[in-house]
C-alpha cells in the first residue's frame, strides 16, 4: 500500500482556508510530513490524492517526483492536475503527457480534465489542449464537444458566477 511518506506536494500546491494557507507555498505544518496530522483540518483529511488512491499509477507518478498532484471532483467527473508553478511544464514531460492525454479520452463521455498552473487553466482533450489563460477562481469552466459541420469539435469556456456570461 502506498503512503505519502515525505512527499507533501498537496501541502504546497493546495490552498487550505482553515489554515490561512495560500496555494503554491509550503504549509507551515509540513516538516517531512504533517506535524498536525492527527488534528489536521477537514480539507486535509478529506483530500484524496489520485496517486495514493490508484494502483495504476507507479512511483514515477508520486507527486514530489512528477511535480504535480491529481485529484477528482464533481463526483469524479473532473480530473484536476495541479502543477507546481516552479516547474510549469512538468505535466508535459513523459511518461506523464502521453498518459494524461489517454486519460482525456473520457471527455467523450462527459468528463473533464483540467490542468492548473497557478491561475492558468488548460482543458485537455484527446487531440488538443485548450489554454484558457488566467481564470478567476470564482468562475466556472465548462467544456465538452459541440457538433460543427457534422463533426465533434471540442470547446472550453469560462463562465462568471456573477452574470452567467461566457468569456474566452
Automatic annotation (TrEMBL):
Listed PANTHER family: UPF0153 PROTEIN YEIW (PTHR36931:SF1)
Designated name of the protein: YkgJ family cysteine cluster protein
Species of origin: Phenylobacterium conjunctum
